[in-house]
Structure formats: C-alpha cells, structure tokens
Amino acid sequence: MKKVFLSLETSKDNQQLLSAIKKQTDIQLVDINEIKDEKFTVIVNGPLTQLADILMTRYKLISQIEEVLFVGGTDAYGDVTPVAEKNVYADVFSAQQVFLSTVKIVMFGLNVTENLKNRALAPLVYLKDPSIFVKDECGIYVETKGKVSYGKTVTDVHSDFQFENHHCEIILDIDMEKYNKVIKSFQLT
Amino acid sequence: MIKKPINVILDGDPGHDDAIAWVVAKASSDFNILACTAVNGNCSAAKAAYNSQRICALIGLDVPIAKGQDKPLVIESLKAPTNIHGESGLDGPELPLPKRELEDLTAVELMIKVLEEAKEKVTIVATGPLTNVGALLLVRPDLKEKIHQISIMGGGIKHGNWTAAAEFNILIDPDSADIVFGSGLPILMSGLDVTEKALVTPKDVEKIKKIDNPVADIVWQWLEFFYQFHVSIGYPGAPIHDLCAVLALNHPEIFTMQKMYVEVETASEYCKGATIGDINNIAGKKPNATVLMDVDREKFIEYMIEAIKSYSEGN
Q1: Could A79 and B263 be called an inter-chain contact, meaning their C-beta atoms sit closer than 8 Å?
Q2: Which of A53, B33, B115, B167 is the most exposed place for a label (fewest CB within 10 A)?
Q3: Of B269, B277, B282, which has the smallest distance from its Cβ to A143's Cβ?
Q4: Residue numbers of the domain that contains A92
C-alpha cells in the first residue's frame, strides 16, 4: 500500500486527480498531521508553498518522504515568462527551498506536460507504471535573483556543466500509447 | 546574375572552430573579408591576435588584423580553459609564421575605421565573446547604420555548456552581449541549439586527410586535436560551433531558423550569461534575433570540405 500526501491547489484538473486516486486500491491518501514514522510520497500540482512550509517546520518528515512528484517547472521554455512555469513562478522562493532540500524530486515539467490533456494526472500514472516515463537524474535549482531568468528551473540535464547536487529526476519523454491506456483504466467521466 | 559578395569583419578568439570558420569564409567568393579582430575568450586577446596572424598567413588572407582589450567590458575575465584549445589557444599542427604585422590600432579602432570607410553595409561575424562588438556599439552608435547584421556564435536557447544555463562566449562577457542583443541591429544567433548538431565525425576527418593541399593538412590536425576533448566528454565528434555563424550567411537554406526575442541575463545566481529566448512569444516583444535551431549536418560538412578542397586550386 502506497501512502500519498497531496498538496494541490483547487482546480478542475486536480479534482479529476483526486477522484482517480480514490479509486486506486493500492494507494492510500494520508493527512500530513497524522503521519507518524511511515514513509510516504508527495504529489504537488500547484505552488510549492505548503511543501516548503512543511520542510521548514517539520523537517523530521524529510527522511520519510520517498519522493516528491512535482507537476511544474520546465527544462527550457516557460508559460508565464519565456523561461518560468506557472507553479514555480507563483512562489519562486518556496520552490527554491524545496529544490535546495535533500528530498528526491521527480519533475513533470512543461517540456512533457504541455501536450497532456490534464497534467495533474501524470504523477498518478507514474505511480501505476514508472516505466512509461523516460527520465534522467539531474540537478535542479530555481533562479530567484535573475533579471530575465527569474523563476526558471535551471537544470544541468542538457549541459556539459554538471551541478554537484543531483537529487532530482526530470521527465524527458512519455510513451503516450501506454500513458493513455493507464488513463483509460481510471474510468474518468 | 552575379551575387554580390557579403562584406564582413571577422571578429573572434581563434580557437580551432574560429579558424575553420575563417578558412571556409576565405575560400568562398560569397565573402569580401575587410579585417580580422581578435578578442579575449578561448585564450587571451594577445594569443588570439597572434593566432589570427598565423591563420591569415596559412590561408593567404591579406587584411588588417588588430588585437582587442585583455578583459571583458565590465567584469573580470574567467580563466580561459586550456583543455579544449590548448595552451596557445590553437594547439596542434605548426602554422606558418605571421606575414602581416598587427595594426597599430585596437580592435575597436580598426572596426571603426573599416566601417567609416565602407561604401556598403558590413556584416560582423563574431565568434568569440562580444567585447569588441559591444564596445564598438557603445562608443560609436552612429555606425550602426553601416552594419548590415551581426552573425554571432554564442548562447543557447535551451541550455548552456559552461554553466547549466550559459554558453561560454556569452558567459565570459554578458554585459557586452546584452549591449549587442539590445542594439536594435539584426542578430543572427548560432547558439548551442544548432552548433552542437554541427558535428564533425572521425569519418569526415578521414575525408579531409585525403585532400592534398597545405590548408587541408592543417585542418585535419586541428580537428583531431579538437575532438579529443569533445569525445572525452561523450560527444560523437567535434561541434564546429563557429562555422555556423559563417555558413548561416551564405547557405542559410541548410539551417532551420526561428525569429524570437532574446535577452541576455546579466544579474542572476544560476543564469548569468544565459540567452533567454522567448521561443513561444510569451512576452509578446518584437523579435530582435533570428536563432538557428537545426542544421542539415551532411550539407554542412559538404560545404566545409568543398571550401578546404578549393585551396588546391591556388585560392
């Protein structure tokens, strides 16, 4: 049984994720205030404000987080500015706190989600079958001081230069045929 | 109809790929080369100037050559890497000694002189950091009307190489790059997006080895030197970055290009020197650059080899 904590902003897309996740018999949603010493996964689709707050105040939980599946960021092009994506741009400082922490973050960025019907569902599909996703280990930092690069998720996945800190994974491609099959199995209306 | 040659100033920090770009430019009747200016980058400005003199001696290019300033416009210079181009900035085969003295002018002064005297507009091909071009535009903005466009090798929309977000030439002197991109002049940008696809493979080098002339004999040795480093970090060959900035002018059809608004990051923690390109036109600003995104590699190599061959005919 996989325990999952959801950090979502209210939206139609996230409503759909919620109803799909409730149908899964192998996934149990958990309340962050009731977690004791068990391991859990975090799904974020929205600003990283709540997760950053948790990391700041309840840092003992950090070692219990298996991974953070974050819908947001981008490997190159943004949607709010030329280089910044909405969920990161909404709270750049919190995003940087999360990426600077030691938790493992799997980033479902604009580079792969821009063609999905509902990107909120991507982490759930990932939990059902991670082999559908092509990913690479990398370092990611969030630019908080830039004049034009403010809010960019800076990754070393394409550059010769490599960051020292490599606790993230970036999704680079999705096998859409298999992806759509899993989506279908959610039987969403 | 006879095509009018393109008047160019070659500004660079040679450098193996700058050198090859100049070899190809000199070989083609498409270009009328007016001057060479050396800039601090891959190596010091002094070494770049000396290398420029020797390259000109090799390819029979008899034009004025001048040295640029020793550091970027505002910031201190990063230490030039020696593992890519070697200690001299152009290690490998022995080149002929200089045939023409350096001008008694600085690079910027020589650019000003050439532009003032030019009857027609001039294109600047800048394949190193943009220090000389930036200084020129700051000091003599009135000469912009003499500049047709600036074809640069530098930057990368999708990624960097020297840092995660910045490419070497822009990172060395982001302030100059900012002046150039903000100048209002048309910018033709060959960044890493295209140049990392402009690869010369060991197979191509074998073809060049078979060409019987003194230039070919040097070029294949440059290439062998140059791809050692790139192969050691996982490339299947050597990206001839700077040649894109030349072939983009006379063979634009072999490239995929996209107009977009590009701004240089000058104040940032992780992105200093990044060329931020608005590829999806989010900000709605008028494009200031034409960015090369892809290249027909086979054609690219074909034009390079054709140029090297032409030195057999007493170019």
Answers
A1: no
A2: A53
A3: B269
A4: 2-185
Residue A24's CATH number: 3.90.245.10
User: Could you give the CA distance from residue A181 to residue B128 in angstroms, rounded to a whole number?
Assistant: 50
Residues 223-262 of B with CB under 8 A from A: 233, 261
Best residue in B196, B230, B266, B268 for a mutation probing chain A (most A CBs within 10 Å): B268
- From the list A75, A139, A148, the residue facing B263 with the nearest CB is A148
Q: Is A6 exposed, middle or buried (0-12, 13-18, 19+ CB in 10 A)?
A: buried
Q: Which of A75, A80, A149 sits opposite B268 (nearest CB)?
A: A149
Q: Enumerate residue ranges in chain B where pLDDT < 70.
A: 1-2, 314-315
Q: Identify which of B115, B83, B98 has the alpha carbon closest to the alpha carbon of residue B46.
A: B98
CB contact under 8 A, A147 and B265: yes
- What pLDDT is attached to residue B2? 66
What is the C-alpha separation between B129 and A72, in angstroms, rounded?
Answer: 34
B75 phi/psi in degrees, rounded to 5: -85, 170
Rounded Cα gap, residues B102 and B104, in angstroms: 6
Give residue-wise pLDDT tens across range A95-125: 999 999 999 999 999 999 999 999 999 999 9
Chain A residues whose CB is inside 8 A of the B268 CB are 143, 145-147, 149
**Which of B164, B267, B282 comes nearest A81 by C-beta?**
B282
Query: Would you kindly state where each structural domain of chain B is located, as residue ranges?
Result: 6-312
The whole-angstrom separation of Cα B310 and Cα B204 is 17
Tokens of B315: 């170019």
What pLDDT is attached to residue B81? 73
CB atoms A147 and B268 under 8 Å? yes
Contacts of B282 in chain A (CB under 8 A): 78-82
The count of domains in chain A is: 1
pLDDT by 10s per residue, chain A, length 189: 999 999 999 999 999 999 999 999 999 999 999 999 999 999 999 999 999 999 988 888 999 999 999 999 999 899 999 999 999 999 999 999 999 999 999 999 999 999 999 999 999 999 999 999 999 999 999 999 999 999 999 999 999 899 988 999 999 999 999 999 999 999 987
* Fold entry, domain B6-312: Inosine-uridine Nucleoside N-ribohydrolase; Chain A (3.90.245)
B15 cis-preceded (ω within 30 degrees of 0): yes
Q: Is the pTM of this model over 0.80?
A: yes
Residue of B nearest to A84 (CA): B282
Chain A residues touching B261 at Cβ < 8 A: 82
Which chain A residue shows the shortest CA-CA distance from B233?
Answer: A160
User: Which one of the listed residues B16, B85, B148, B241 is annotated catalytic?
Assistant: B241
